User: Fold this.
Amino acid sequence: MTDTVESDPFAPVRTEHLWSAHHEAELDPERRAWLDDLVTQLAEGATGWSTTPLA
Amino acid sequence: MHAAIVGTAERWAKTASDIKGLATDSPLVGEEWISGPYATLAGVGALANTVASLAGGVSPLAKTRFGVGPGGRLTVPVLPANALEWVLMHGFSAEVWMKPTRTAADVRANAGLGELTPEVTAGVGLVLGAGNITSIAPLDMLYELVANNRTVLLKLNPTLDPMLPIYQEALAPLIEFGALRIVQGDGDVGRYLAHHPGISHVHITGSAVTHDVVVYGAGADGAARKLARTPLLAKPITSELGGVSPVVIVPGVWTKRDLRYQAEHVVTQRLHNAGSNCIAGQVVILSSDWPQKDAFLAELGSALDRAPARPAWYPGSDDRLSSAAASYPDAKRQGADGRWLLINIHPDDDASTLTATEYFCPVLGVIQVPGTGQGFLEAAVQTANHDFVGTLGANIIADPKTIRKLGHGFLEAIAELAYGTIGINVWTGLGFLAPTARWGAFPGATIDDVRSGVGIVHNALLLDDPERTVVRGPFRPFPRSIAHGELTLFPKPPWFVSARSAATTGRLLSGFAAGPSWRKLPAIFLSAFRA
Assistant:
């Protein structure tokens, strides 16, 4: 298997360009801050939602 | 949530059809209704019933009458779930098989999963959405939320980016509730989030290659980490990853119309969604001793030629088909524009590339195994278990007389077939659509040897650690079913690629899933009978 699209139907570009071995992505600080904020919002939601009926 | 999804349904089906290059008036739009709004509405409805039952202190299995399967396995009937479904899906059924050691009391007591302790949060889960079917990401998200008590950050596969506004609107109640956020992005976003300290779990529907990149990293470094079993990802991950699905044709005495109908059935399993399904039937296993083998092969070719043309929309599809053609130079181009590939492998030739490569495009292969009756069935099961990549789904087509003749041996062979969903006379795709069915790989994979994945989704009864799903359908459509002694009333299924009324039926089915009612059935039947 390779990392190219030919072997990976869910990654239509070369995956090494998308998913490097380093944890720190090439995301710009603004984008990272936005994602961090979403995770924080969901962490807050995680402590509140589960006691309320979904229906 | 139902109301929010219903409000988007038309645009949902239209957007999905546009992504896939389907003309507005194409019957194939039915696929997008059924695998989009319908599947999502049915999933939400079934989960809501379970949650409501548990909230009232009642097990979702309180009224369930268990069965007993091979090896003493407890079996849980999940389709039809009620009288309406019994009529709507007449002749179809599904059951979930529990692992052999489970007892009725234990299964009943543990049904509910995270909803048994809703006050205990499991943090924030990242769902890396699939790129091929529009209900997969919402259903994966719902399972994280309800079964596992995790709020969800859903990252869309870029292939389905145009679905973002639809999802945001359809799932708005969960977003407003603080339980869901949806983002777009390439692998850099996925990587950042997967390793984010605020994310407690990752779920991915995709390919084994992508899974391994998430877990171990890419390139040579990733390969080395996998070899050393030292993952980069320092948190649990579950997955649904596809594979090469077999379609076992059990020899019997078939009529000309049986041969034609079942050939269409097999072609549907391959061509649905232009072949880009994790559960697509890819390799037919025929008996080399079946007197009707050549007649069936001829019908397969004809069914491919008759199938409506459609774009090979998924990225890389044409390249993968070319790769298959290069591996098998004798393969035959089929279909009006020659875009389907039929690979008929001689018993003495090597089928290993075909059985080890998930093509995810319109490549259909045929291999042959000797024998008749039980001997053939057991040989076919062994071939599938040992030679085929993946364990997500397997299909068996056998006429009722042959099944009766095989008796208990037939069920024993099913038990030996190590797949997460097994379809008997029905495409395993029905197992995907049935919200109460367990969906995922056969148990036993690990992140080091992930095959078709680890963990399950759907499972709307919230069964604890089920083994597999077995779905059954009628061998013949109504009215031929009755003429041959099968008491079923279902015509040609609307998911068949040859179903002319699929778009209308899919739309009506979505309306039914939004609010099941006896009054909605006549219109559905009228449309379905025009297929």
